[in-house]
Amino acid sequence: MSIDPATSAYAAHARLVDPARPRSEIWRILLGIFLIGVISYAATHAVLQFLIAVFPGAWIGDLPTGKSPVAMLVLLGSFVFVTFAVAAVLRLLHQRRLAGLIGPLRLTLHQFCRTGLGLLYLMGGLLVLWLILPSGLDGGAMSSLVKNFDLGQWLLLLPLALFAVFVQISAEEILFRGYLQQALAARFSHPVIWLLVPSILFAIGHYAPADAGVNAPLIVLWAGGFGFLMADLTARAGTLGPAIAIHFANNIIAILLFGSPTSLSGLALYLVPFELSDPIILRQMLWLDFAIVGLCWLVARLAIRR
Question: Which letter, b or e, does each residue of 280-295 get, where b requires 16 or more Cβ atoms within 10 Å of its Cβ?
Fold first, then answer.
C-alpha cells in the first residue's frame, strides 16, 4: 500500500524529492552509495597521509581514539570529504546540485534557527531540573564529572571545535537524510522504505564493539531511533534545517561538553565518570538521552509548524 505524499504530512518532502525523480533508478542509487564511499575514503586517506608527513607529532597516535584536540579536529574535519563525495555523485549520476538536496536556503535557515532557539529553551529547562533535583535527571550518574580542560583553554578552542562538529554533523545529514532518503523516496512511494533504510544504515555506522563492548547493539538501536526521528522531521520540514540543528546540539553536548573517557574526548570540557562499555550506567543514560532526543524532535515539530 502506497501513501500519496502530496496529501500526507510529508508533502513538503515530496516537493524536495521531485528533482530526484527523473534519475532515480536503483542502479544509480547503489552506484552512488558505492562512489560516495570510495571517493570519501580515498580523499580522507590521501589528506591524512599528507598531514602525517608534513606535521608529524604525538597527535598521530591519538587518531584512532580522538583523545587529543588536534586528532579530534582532524577526525571531525575529515567528514568534509563525505559532503564533497555526495556533491560529486549528485552531479555525476543525478544531475542535481548539493543546495537542492538541503532545501530552499531561506527556509532551511529559518527552520534551523527556530529549532535551535527552541532547543536552547529546552536545554535551559533541563539544566535547571538537573541542578534542583536531589539526584539530577540522571539519577546521580554524572555527579562525578572529571575536568578535561581548563575553561580558558577550552573557550579558545571552542570556535574551531564548533566548526569541526558542524562539518561532521552536516555531512551525516547530507548523506543519510539528504542523499539516501531523497533518492529512495524518488524511487519508492511508501515512507517505510525511505525512512527506515537510511536510519538502519546510519545505525550500523555507529556499531563500535571495541569501545562499547556489550553495549554496542544498544548504541546501534539508539542511533537507529535517532536517525528515524531525524528522517521523519526532515520529511515534515522539507529541508535539512531542523535535523541539522538537533544533530548539532546533540554532538555539542556529547563531544564538546561531556565526552566519554573511552574515545573521542579530545575536545570535551568534562569527561563522564563511566565508559561506553559500562553494563549498567551507560544503558540508563542512553534511555534518558533518547527521551531527551524525543523532546528535541517535539520542539522541532512545534518550531516548523509556526
Answer: ebbeebbeebbebbee
